[in-house]
UniProtKB/TrEMBL annotation:
GO terms for molecular function: L-serine ammonia-lyase activity; pyridoxal phosphate binding; threonine deaminase activity. Transmembrane segments: none annotated. This is L-threonine dehydratase catabolic TdcB. In the native structure, TdcB is in a dimeric form, whereas in the TdcB-AMP complex, it exists in a tetrameric form (dimer of dimers). CDD domains: ACT_ThrD-II-like, Thr-dehyd. It is an enzyme of class 4 (lyase). It comes from Streptomyces indicus.
Amino acid sequence: MNYRTADSLHPSHPRHPVTLDDVRGAQKMLIGVSRVTAMEGSRHLSELVGSPVHFKCENLQRTGSFKLRGAYVRIAGLIAEERAAGVVAASAGNHAQGVALASSLLGVRSTVFMPKGAPLPKVAATRDYGAEVRLHGQVVDETLAAAQDYARATGAVFIHPFDHADIIAGQGTVGLEILEQCPEVRTILVGIGGGGLAAGIAVAVKALRPDVRVIGVQAAGAAAYPPSLALGHPVALESPSTMADGIKVGRPGDVPFKIVGDLVDEVRTVSEDALSSALLLCLERAKLVVEPAGAAPVAALLSAPEQFTGPVVAVLSGGNVDPLLMQRILRHGMAAAGRYLSLRLRLADRPGALASLLAALSVLDANVVDVSHVRTDPRLGLTEVEVELHLETKGPQHCTEVAASLRDAGYTVMA
């Protein structure tokens, strides 16, 4: 589903709190701090879209996401008294690591509040980058409140993840790099949570190349921008829900909202299935580890490849994904791609029956992931047993062939 932004058809806009000069200044500030991340082509997506598709690999940025850019610019802009007071942030992952490393590079003390359920690798990484980590609350809203209370009590400067002009200017350097690396670009796809990255890219790109379409992508279960753009002001979602933690934001930021409304051409939403499939594609085809939020632009391309004018650049915004979550997402992505097959079959309850079934599956080149027996169901005859199988296959066509072959072999396939 897609939503055209309110003012996307009007070329002239009032001055925004972030300008091209601000982004260029941020780019100079970040020399030697952030990486100019790689631009990688995707043959598979290029064939699907019908024109070149490139990945802007911010998942390979220091700390594993674009967040270092904005955090460094924001903290570098503090006056001496503010630096002496230290900084504080609240985050479940990427912003936490960006603030921690930026603070260490600038010699500023940092305290980062993280939810108690934050993935252990992200907590450990934030500490390793030099921050004092305090675990508080079960959800980010509680963590955010604790960080703001700490700022008021100690005088530490609160570093917002997206709702500040310096943050947006820093993130906008991604847009400058895209134009330098792919000057022929016609469409840029970028994930949107609070809006800082999309706003920054739009400021830089639209100032230099107003013909380039900038399209934001949100997870359907956490899409606060579409209703906000429709009403003309930020509105909060009651309970955003998505696997894409990096863009799971319940309310657009006030500062980026105006920029997104004026300069971003369109905001699209993608399903959880599409996110899983996109992450799987990045891993298998591009050999890139990408978190669900970073895969949102790829999910949009997979969902409607014919709707984009190329060359296309998809911003892979981050690669910080917990290994346990990655495992679950990959399974979900394989299921969404038709590469898992669940079947229930009835067999004669006699020795060797299961072995014969597994041998048949081996011939069909289907990998058995899990198998279980049911013997006590009243629907079963005295000499019957039901077997539930979970198989890994090569795709939807293979699933159909496996089920048909088992039926042809005389097995009663229930599902």
